[in-house]
Design goal:
about 160 residues, alpha/beta, Rossmann fold, seven-stranded mixed β-sheet, two-stranded antiparallel ribbon, 6 helices, 9 strands, about 25% helix, globular
Length: about 160
């Protein structure tokens, strides 16, 4: 499993799994074992069964190139969770404008001062354009209401599982 931009809350849990070869990677995080740019992943084709990447693609210059790289390093039959933030109302089409460089303007347009795009409802099509078969998981919508509230989960978020 390749975990890009590893979150501290997951690292010990994944490392404790004896049946999982777990690699963390990031361009700058001190939590990552491998330093890498997601635009040029330094692993061979078909290296990983699983790829986990949360809230990274809205920060990178070329998200489609990064998605293609993730597709390249996944094994056939492998899958990825590539979460992105959703800001309501969700636009129909992803908004990108590289000419917007002012942090205050980025915050206003993209929802955060270090974001370079605001994803729209076309996100699954963007994943498919990179080669993935996209499966919509509506897990939160199928959970017991009390559990959703207990864990403060967004009650309408779709998780897109990207498969190779």
């Amino acid at each position: 499993m390749l975990h890009v931009a590893p979150e501290l809350c997951f690292i010990n849990r994944f490392e404790a799994l004896e049946n999982l070869d777990y690699i963390t990677a990031d361009i700058e995080s001190p939590l990552a074992k491998v330093k890498m740019d997601i635009h040029e992943i330094p692993f061979e084709d078909n290296s990983f069964d699983i790829l986990f990447c949360n809230h990274v693609l809205e920060h990178v210059d070329d998200d489609l190139k990064a998605m293609r790289e993730m597709y390249r390093v996944l094994k056939s039959g492998g899958w990825a969770i590539l979460q992105i933030p959703w800001f309501h109302p969700i636009p129909d089409v992803t908004l990108e404008d590289p000419s917007i460089t002012d942090p205050k303007e980025r915050d206003r347009i993209f929802g955060q001062d270090d974001h370079v795009r605001l994803y729209g409802k076309d996100y699954p099509e963007r994943l498919a354009k990179a080669g993935f078969k996209v499966v919509e998981e509506r897990l939160v919508m199928e959970m017991d209401r009390d559990e959703v509230e207990r864990y403060a989960l967004p009650d309408d978020e779709i998780i897109y599982r990207a498969e190779k």
